[in-house]
Every structure is written in structure tokens, then in C-alpha cells.
Write a structure and sequence with these properties.
alpha/beta, Alpha-Beta Plaits, four-stranded parallel beta sheet, 10 helices
């Protein structure tokens, strides 16, 4: 049984984009629906932040990889998503057309970016500590757990000064490595609830079909229905991603092959770490 996995926002654009008809078509749709030229990474319409551009790029690459994998004969019996990977996943399971998925990615990203006008936010990655000390240092510094990727790989989100202090505390506590990245908004934390009404208004402009392939969500590992999707798209931005639990639920469902549809192989790496620990 095959599962397609759709990763979240990439940290950077790869130097060379695919050079084939499939990607050219996806890039044309992206430019038309979002105003972003993927080749130049320049805006053809109203500009947005670098983070919004990366979100659109990540969604476009997810759509492209979905097409390529299917043309190669891989037909998923299930799909799973991580963070901003939800938008490409929705198109891949025919719950939303590709163009609307890219447009929705852009509109959600621009709404999130509005938070950056009144605050300075960041994400912090901690590797090597277990959940208990990570949660403690997050609380000590007023930030929040945003991703439970493995038992020893976590992402925190919050105000930039709090993330920087949390990363320093994590090193003192024995973390193998820490890193931090700028963010438009504190994704997957309760702080997003401040703009939840705006996010609901964006999502309300779209009509979702029943997924034609079961799509497992990353919060409670349930399969999304068309009726679930609008609420989930806002709720998931306010709650942490639980990828370790998602991967284990995928395995329990009988999946034997997981193929990553997006930029890089971050989920494949997490899966390997989780499998080594759980056998």
C-alpha cells in the first residue's frame, strides 16, 4: 500500500527547478493564481513576503511531484500532510483543483504575514532533547511547541527574542543542535487564534469535494471529509503538527511504501528516525 506524504514549507528554493512540461504547467498556474514567477522568484502582481513565496513554491513542488509520481505508475491508497503541505495534499486527493490550492496557499500565507507587521516572530529547531525538557524550556521563554516531528526533533514558534533565548537554553540542556529561522507568524501555536476570523473568511471562499484518496491529518490522525476541511485548515494553524504520531498511524493502517511529494526528503528522514526507535 502506497502513501504520498506532502511536507510543509521549505526553508529555501532549490537552485535549479524542474525543466519539463509538467512543471511548466504548474508554474504557469502558480503565476496566474498567486502572482509569483517561480523561475525568478519575483512577484508579477502585489508583492508578498519571502515566506509566502516559499509557501507557494512548496505547494507547487508538491503538485508537481504528485503528477510525476502518478505518471510513473504510483497510485496512492492514502495521503498524509505536514503543516503547509495540506494545500498540495488537498489537490492531490481531488478535494480542490490545483489552481485553487495554490491560490489558497497564497491567501493564507498573506493573511499570516499580516501578523509580522506588529511583531517579530521566528521558528526554532531543537534536535537531541526529549519532549519534557523541550516543553519546559518553551514555557520558560514564552514560546510554543509547533512540530513534534520525532521523539527528539521539535520545532518551536513564537516571538523572536523568546526563540533565541529558548535555543540558548536548549544547548545548555544538552541538545545536539539548534537553529532558528525568521517567520511571518508563529505557525501552529495558540497565537494564531488572534487572526482566526480572518483565516475563516479566506477559507469560506472555497468549496471542497470529498477526498478521492483517504487523507490523514496531522493533529489527531483522522481521515478528513469535505465537511471537516474548512475547520481543519484554520485549526491546524493554531495547534502543533504531530508527525511522529502520524507516521505511526500510517504504518498501523497497513502502508508499506511512503513517497514524499514536495521539496527535499525531510519527512523521509523523520520516518527513518521514528522507525529505528519503534522497530
Amino acid at each position: 500500500m502506497i502513501c504520498f506524504m506532502f511536507p510543509g514549507q521549505p526553508l529555501a528554493k532549490v537552485p535549479t527547478l524542474p525543466d519539463d512540461a509538467e512543471f511548466a504547467e504548474i508554474a504557469a498556474i502558480a503565476c496566474d493564481r498567486t502572482g509569483l514567477d517561480l523561475e525568478s522568484f519575483a512577484w508579477r502582481g502585489e508583492p508578498a513576503t519571502d515566506q509566502v513565496a516559499l509557501q507557494i513554491y512548496g505547494a507547487a513542488m508538491g503538485l508537481y511531484r504528485n503528477r510525476v509520481l502518478r505518471r510513473a505508475g504510483f497510485n496512492p491508497a492514502m495521503a498524509a500532510e505536514h503543516s503547509m503541505g495540506i494545500y498540495a495534499a488537498l489537490a492531490a486527493v481531488d478535494a480542490l483543483p490545483e489552481g485553487e490550492a495554490l491560490e489558497l496557499t497564497s491567501r493564507i500565507g498573506r493573511t499570516l504575514a499580516g501578523m509580522g507587521k506588529s511583531g517579530s516572530y521566528a521558528l526554532g529547531c531543537v534536535t537531541g532533547l526529549s519532549a519534557a525538557p523541550v516543553l519546559a524550556l518553551a514555557e520558560n521563554n514564552g514560546v510554543y511547541p509547533a512540530n513534534y516531528n520525532t521523539s527528539r526533533h521539535f520545532l518551536l514558534a513564537g516571538e523572536q527574542h523568546g526563540i533565541e533565548a529558548a535555543m540558548a537554553e536548549a544547548l545548555e540542556a544538552g541538545a545536539f543542535s539548534v537553529s532558528s529561522f525568521p517567520a511571518d507568524a508563529p505557525l501552529h501555536t495558540p497565537l494564531i487564534e488572534a487572526i482566526a476570523p480572518e483565516l475563516h473568511n479566506v477559507v469560506a471562499d472555497y468549496r471542497f469535494s470529498e477526498p478521492q484518496v483517504p487523507l490523514m491529518e496531522h493533529i489527531e490522525q483522522d481521515f478528513l471529509t469535505a465537511a471537516d476541511i474548512p475547520g481543519f485548515l484554520v485549526r491546524e494553524l493554531c495547534l502543533p503538527v504531530r508527525w511522529e504520531a502520524t507516521f505511526l498511524a500510517i504504518r498501523r493502517a497497513g502502508v508499506t511504501s511512503l513517497l514524499e511529494a514536495g521539496v527535499g526528503e525531510s519527512l523521509k528522514k523523520y520516518n527513518r528516525w521514528i522507525a529505528m526507535e519503534h522497530g
